[in-house]
Write a structure and sequence with these properties.
This protein is α+β, with helices and mostly antiparallel strands. Helices cover 40% and strands 18% of the residues.
Length: 351
């Protein structure tokens, strides 16, 4: 057994490393090594620790980037986009699907402009997940990729990805909710290439920026987006609801049918049904396949607008969507809770 052993010479302490053992049943010193004074030992330790440290280090974002990239790969987002859009944009280093998947990744993790994307990418471990050369991340390639996708192709891509989400997660789509909001963009005032971006009442309080309105249909089971409709940001939500409800209902039912699961409101009345009719009752959850929905929804939840997070509630529906006159999520939640409390009280009293 090795141990430190001090020796005093002229009042100074010197340290040795001794190894003891038993020979013929008796303890004897097997070896002795001189270490020096306490200061010598400390200096040797510091030198050894310094030699063990790397010459340089990099601190990179990894967890959120890896999680988001894993979801994109599981859903095959880039492949879906490439299949729909066809050939790669002329002169582009990567496919349109890869560029749009990277843009979605950045929007989810740390939103920035396309011109700043390459610099942000260097601060992450993304190059370990996707072997993409730095010159391929020029912002002009991103714009070319976006311009190569038509509105019709975008709708097809969205529908295909939604079907894959349902199939992969087994999320219950028999009851859904609609949230209508708007979000600010940095589209220049003189830029006429984006007519959907207009000035209006910004829910983010950014009245200085142009807005885009968004109607988003999500599942009550986990709040996972299924379909959407964008509209100019200068139009109030209440004026857009009657116009988009039928379109969103059709898109939502198409997603459910393609996924092979029962949609809400099969056979339900259309959006013009009067308030209080049978078509406004909450649709009961279906019996579709159920896998690890909770875990999957937690992974997808960051893709939802911040204004909607945590506001999926039981609400009156038309074909599974929030009914006219009940489009404000907070009011719907309050009314649903009030009705539930009334029902419990009536049951307790036996009335």
């Amino acid at each position: 057994m090795a141990s430190l052993y001090p020796k005093k010479v002229s009042g100074k302490t010197y340290w040795y490393l001794r190894e003891m053992g038993r020979i013929d049943g008796k303890p004897k010193m097997i070896s002795e090594r001189y270490l020096g004074t306490a200061a010598d030992i400390a200096a040797a330790m510091e030198t050894r620790e310094a030699a063990a440290l790397p010459e340089r280090t990099r601190h990179l974002a990894f967890g959120d980037v890896a999680a988001a990239w894993g979801i994109l790969e599981d859903l095959g987002v880039a492949a879906v986009i490439d299949e729909v859009t066809g050939s790669r944009p002329a002169g582009a280093a990567l496919s349109a699907g890869t560029y749009l998947a990277l843009a979605a990744l950045n929007r989810l993790v740390a939103p920035c402009s396309k011109a700043a994307f390459a610099d942000w990418w260097k601060t992450t471990a993304g190059d370990r997940l996707a072997k993409i050369p730095a010159p391929a991340l020029d912002h002009r390639y991103f714009w070319d990729a976006m311009h190569s996708v038509t509105l019709e192709q975008l709708e097809e891509i969205s529908r295909t990805i939604a079907v894959r989400i349902v199939g992969l997660s087994g999320v219950d789509v028999s009851s859904v909710a609609l949230d209508m909001t708007n979000f600010a963009t940095f589209t220049g005032t003189a830029n006429g290439k984006a007519p959907v971006a207009q000035r209006g009442k910004a829910k983010q309080k950014r009245s200085d920026l142009r807005l885009v309105g968004l109607g988003l249909v999500v599942t009550r089971d986990g709040g996972i987006p299924l379909t959407w409709h964008a509209y100019p940001g200068d139009r109030p939500d209440v004026t857009q609801f009657p116009a988009m409800i039928d379109q969103l209902l059709t898109q939502y039912q198409a997603v459910a049918a393609a996924a092979g699961v029962r949609s809400a409101g099969a056979g339900a009345a259309n959006s013009s049904a009067p308030a209080g009719s049978a078509s406004e009752r909450s649709v009961a959850p279906g019996s579709g396949p159920r896998r690890n929905t909770a875990a999957f929804s937690r992974r997808l939840r960051p893709t939802m607008p911040a204004s909607f997070a945590g506001r999926v509630t039981t609400a009156p529906t038309v074909g599974g969507l929030v009914a006219p006159g009940s489009w404000v999520p907070e009011r719907v939640a309050s009314e649903a809770v009030h009705r539930s409390q009334q029902a419990k009280l009536a049951g307790a009293l036996g009335t």
